[in-house]
């Protein structure tokens, strides 16, 4: 049992999807092949809540090649070599069904999405801080797909969902933080969502309450000009 535990720990995976896709294993750093289809397939399986059929995966990623199932088999064999260990099978294939089991792995996008789905209201500031730090960039920002419209639509929806999670984390962290950290969190929230009036109003309120009224007035004036330039109603900011 102890030897099995060591084998499990040695092969634990750390997957970064928020930003450039990166895969690291505790017993080494397996490089993801440069194939865009393979990287897209890995990402789709990693984020899929249930098994997918081979036909579904072929339709998602291979609308042109003469042998999409052959290409799918090649990609799956490469993924298996990356994620499976001697004591742990993570790529599960059963007939037409394909599933990637990353339950024992660290996957930034899954950690963020699961925390938001469970609710952020009762998480301590330290955990909110940790989750926010995982949001290092756009989901799969180095995995462009121009010839697979179904995957493009899926990726767009996933990016929108995880962007909303990042925004919620920043908002909750700004509310939980105190002192100088609170102001820094409000600035990050405002930078991430420059046209979110709630972020501006919270920042204005914090500047005012901390006695930095001149900075609050300058921020209000600059933000009003920005809103007006974009054709947005800046009058709501004045009620802060």
Tags for this entry?
3-stranded mixed beta sheet, mainly alpha, disordered N terminus, 240 residues
What does this structure look like?
This protein has 240 residues and is mainly alpha-helical. 57% of the residues lie in helices and 8% in strands. The chain contains ten helices and six strands. The protein has a three-stranded mixed β-sheet. Strands 3-5-4 form a three-stranded antiparallel β-sheet. A hairpin with a 2-residue loop joins strand 4 and strand 5. Helix 5 crosses helix 7. Residues 1-10 have low confidence and may be disordered.
Low-confidence stretches: 1-10
Helix content: 55-70%
Tally the helices: 10
Main structural class: mainly alpha
Strand segment count: 6
Chain-averaged pLDDT: 87
- In what range is the share of β-strand residues? 5-15%
Radius of gyration: 22 Å
Q: How far apart lie the N and C ends? A: 61 Å
Order of helices and strands: HEEHEHHEEEHHHHHH
General form:
elongated
Task: List the topology elements.
Blueprint: H1 2-10, E1 13-16, E2 22-25, H2 36-47, E3 52-53, H3 54-61, H4 68-83, E4 91-94, E5 97-100, E6 106-107, H5 108-118, H6 125-134, H7 149-176, H8 179-192, H9 197-209, H10 213-229
Parallel strand pairs: 1-6
Antiparallel strand pairs: 1-2, 3-5, 4-5
Structure at a glance:
This protein has 240 residues and is mainly alpha-helical.
């Amino acid at each position: 049992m102890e030897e099995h535990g060591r084998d499990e720990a040695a092969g634990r995976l750390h997957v970064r999807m928020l930003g450039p896709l990166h895969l690291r294993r505790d017993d080494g750093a397996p490089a993801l092949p440069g194939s865009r289809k393979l990287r897209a397939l890995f990402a789709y399986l990693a984020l899929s809540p249930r098994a997918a059929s081979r036909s579904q995966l072929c339709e998602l990623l291979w609308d042109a090649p003469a042998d999409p199932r052959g290409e799918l088999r090649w990609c799956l064999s490469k993924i298996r070599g990356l994620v499976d260990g001697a004591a742990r099978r993570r790529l599960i294939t059963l007939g037409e069904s394909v599933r990637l089991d990353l339950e024992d792995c660290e996957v930034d996008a899954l950690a963020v999405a699961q925390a938001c789905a469970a609710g952020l209201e009762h998480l301590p500031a330290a955990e909110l801080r940790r989750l926010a730090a995982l949001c290092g960039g756009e989901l799969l920002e180095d995995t462009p797909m121009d010839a697979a419209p179904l995957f493009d639509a899926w990726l767009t929806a996933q990016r929108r969902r995880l962007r909303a999670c990042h925004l919620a984390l920043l908002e909750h962290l700004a509310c939980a933080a105190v002192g100088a950290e609170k102001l820094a969190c409000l600035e990050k929230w405002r930078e991430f969502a420059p046209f979110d009036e709630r972020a501006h109003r919270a920042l204005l309120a914090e500047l005012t309450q901390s006695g930095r009224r001149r900075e609050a007035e300058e921020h209000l004036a600059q933000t009003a000009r920005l809103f007006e330039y974009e054709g947005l109603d800046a009058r709501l900011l004045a009620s802060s």
